[in-house]
UniProtKB/TrEMBL annotation:
<comment type="similarity">
    <text>Belongs to the DMRL synthase family.</text>
</comment>
<comment type="pathway">
    <text>Cofactor biosynthesis; riboflavin biosynthesis; riboflavin from 2-hydroxy-3-oxobutyl phosphate and 5-amino-6-(D-ribitylamino)uracil: step 1/2.</text>
</comment>
<protein>
    <recommendedName>
        <fullName>6,7-dimethyl-8-ribityllumazine synthase</fullName>
        <ecNumber>2.5.1.78</ecNumber>
    </recommendedName>
</protein>
<dbReference type="InterPro" id="IPR034964">
    <property type="entry name" value="LS"/>
</dbReference>
<keyword id="KW-0808">Transferase</keyword>
<dbReference type="GO" id="GO:0009231">
    <property type="term" value="P:riboflavin biosynthetic process"/>
</dbReference>
<dbReference type="GO" id="GO:0009349">
    <property type="term" value="C:riboflavin synthase complex"/>
</dbReference>
<dbReference type="InterPro" id="IPR002180">
    <property type="entry name" value="LS/RS"/>
</dbReference>
<dbReference type="Pfam" id="PF00885">
    <property type="entry name" value="DMRL_synthase"/>
</dbReference>
<dbReference type="GO" id="GO:0000906">
    <property type="term" value="F:6,7-dimethyl-8-ribityllumazine synthase activity"/>
</dbReference>
<dbReference type="InterPro" id="IPR036467">
    <property type="entry name" value="LS/RS_sf"/>
</dbReference>
<keyword id="KW-0686">Riboflavin biosynthesis</keyword>
Length: 141
């Protein structure tokens, strides 16, 4: 497998650090590059930029997978709905635009920080395992 890319937000840094640690452990021995963006709405654009740069440098096999990491906690306004819908739509579009690359969305959307505490590590572990499985399946095609 080639390199993996992690694009993560800067919000909820404690939880993002846990995500990065889990991903680093699960992808130990593989090349992993981390990129930070301000918030969830910026994830897909950075992911696309990184994918395009890597593919330009290495025409084939340069990137096995991308995992997007972030946390969106519902507030008192409709901002939550906008952020979650647009983030998921844009990450999904990337998966369609780059079908040879494993793309996993690990943006955890919750009602409150207590739910984030409960779901963060388990979801991230499951998603990074899914990333490895999907990358291997795509590599074998």
């Amino acid at each position: 497998m080639s390199r993996f890319v992690v694009v993560h937000t800067s919000w909820y840094q404690e939880y993002i650090n846990d995500m990065k640690e889990i991903i680093s452990e699960e992808l130990s021995g593989l090349e992993v590059n981390f990129y930070e963006v301000p918030g969830s709405l910026e994830l897909a654009a950075m992911g696309k930029k990184v994918i395009e740069l890597i593919l330009k440098k290495e025409s084939k096999g340069g990137i096995a997978g991308v995992i997007f990491c972030g946390a969106v906690v519902r507030g008192e306004t409709t901002h939550y709905e906008l952020v979650t819908k647009e983030t998921f739509r844009e990450i999904g579009n990337l998966a369609l635009d780059y079908p040879d690359i494993a793309i996993i969305n690990n943006v955890i959307c919750v009602e409150n920080e207590e739910q984030l505490k409960i779901r963060n590590k388990k979801n991230t572990l499951n998603n990074v395992k899914a990333l490895k499985t999907l990358a291997k399946s795509k590599e074998e095609l």
